[in-house]
Amino acid sequence: MSPAVSARFGRRGCAAAAALVAVALFGGAAHGQEWAKKMFTVTSHNFGTVAKGSKTEYRFQFRNNYKEDVRVVGVRTSCGCTSPVVTKRDLKTHETSEIVATFNTRTFLGQHGATLTVTFDKPFVAEVQLRVAGHIRGDVSFDPPFVDLGNVDLGKGAERKVRITRIGTTPWSIADVRSANPDFEVLLSPPLKTPSQTVYDLTMRLKPETAPGYVKGQLVLVTDDPRAGQIPMDVEGRVVAEVTVSPQLLALGAVTTGDTVTKNVVVRANREFSITGILCDDGCLTCEPKTTRAKVHILPVTFQAGAAAGRVERQLKIATDLGEGAVPAVTVQVEVKPVEGAAATASPEQAASVR
Known about the structure:
This protein is mainly beta.
């Protein structure tokens, strides 16, 4: 082979090698971000058609399915029509968090969409893109912007009113109000019509037999408007039993054999009470009694890891002066790791799932 031919072959060989390196780098980067996307069950949401000024949000939940800690360093939006917030940035094994996407219905009108980019830096740098879209009507509004039940005592139920106003001269009416939640009852007043607007008063009742816990749902207004036959209205609240405990699933993450980890449990009641102690089968959970009576107690619960590695799940029972069984049991989960031989943080492909 002549020197000229050899030189040409050398240049072509270097270019091919460089192309292979670029493919490997960029292909690996794209593949390496899949670990983060796998934590999300949903990555897109369409709000549909919503009223001006209404409270409109969606919660993208994600869960750390890995042995390594996960950290969110930030989330940015491509459009001012949507504001994102991270509820919890640092997650240990099995812990969950949410990206709350709020549609800015007060300042935007018409069809809008946004891409929310969630950035992680632990255990590896990665980005996940979430997408939202919706149409904000300027002629329909709610006052207040959603059904806010607040805290409702167990067994008492609740009632809230919302005024629905539609601005316009063309005929418009609400034919029905629907909900997938059987605990909701809705009454709709006859319409008050003027040449420039139509007004309805909506009354929503939460049934007294509703179970304790967080209440979140929607009422769907079914209208005769062919452009937007359905308009959602959010419902939020919490039914509070005489005694509640949060969280009822206490995920402590990972701890090395022989070490301890402490997290708080909050116990609330409708009247003042004291905590006399906690009960656990093998004594691996401890907590100091709270003898001062109060309606809210914050309990630092400490887990002492034994010599055996593996996943540990225990039932924690909290004793109070309200009587036996007054406080719901707490399920405690923790992953105990051995002191020696613990694997160093690996590549995304090697990060072990502990689902």
